[in-house]
């Protein structure tokens, strides 16, 4: 139960206003519109004077390109790494606040142990980015982003159990059941799953209730018998098979992987 496919449901949550029009995409041409070797006859091709070509020392290095971009901010590209670090930090703070250490202490320790163990936070950052893309505020999507990470963490805790993959390490640390025992690990995953939906329902602000309900429905569908769980089941029953086709593998990939 490795991960969660969010491509569909997050769109319904994060969109604050109906989009009035949808851009049409057109297929790329099968060949380039201009090919100098086919559009010119051999008689019109000129012999290349290699002495006129620039020497290898005149080729721009990576450092030159970086300096040029720094001089012209308009040419600078989007800093993906900085964006990920910034948003991941915001998600970590929100998760720390959402899942506080309270009674019963043991179960909340187990929940926090795996939830706050690190990771790139790709899924919650994707949720925040989708919200921003359609004009929403980060605060509108943060509860959903945290919920997505809680569910992802649940899937990792359960996936590491002896009855599944029986892993001893996760992100360089002992897995949840190695630290707290199998019973507490199962319950920690269950608690994270339940709290994920509670967190969206209770903590989301600035979003119409109808859209919150729709988001909860889409998220539940994405992780249930038609989503994450379906992919995990097919993965389990496929072990040892020798005639697994591409469609079979794609089903597992689409349902288990974000």
Structure overview:
This protein is mostly helical and 258 residues long. It has a domain of 176 residues: Farnesyl Diphosphate Synthase, CATH 1.10.600. The chain has twelve helices and two strands. It has a two-stranded antiparallel sheet with strand order 1-2. A hairpin with a 2-residue loop joins strand 1 and strand 2. Helix 7 packs antiparallel against helix 9. The protein is globular. About 18% of the residues have low confidence.
CATH class of the domain at 9-14 and 87-256: Mainly Alpha
Structural class based on helices, strands and sheet pairing? mainly alpha
Order of helices and strands: HHHHHHHEEHHHHH
Quantity of strands, as a count? 2
Please describe the structure with a list of short key phrases separated by commas or semicolons:
12 helices; 258 residues; Farnesyl Diphosphate Synthase; 2% strand; mainly alpha
List the helices and strands and how they pair.
Blueprint: H1 9-14, H2 36-39, H3 62-71, H4 80-98, H5 105-115, H6 122-133, H7 138-159, E1 169-170, E2 173-174, H8 176-180, H9 182-203, H10 209-223, H11 228-237, H12 246-256
Antiparallel strand pairs: 1-2
Compact description:
By secondary structure, this protein is mainly α. It has twelve helices and two strands.
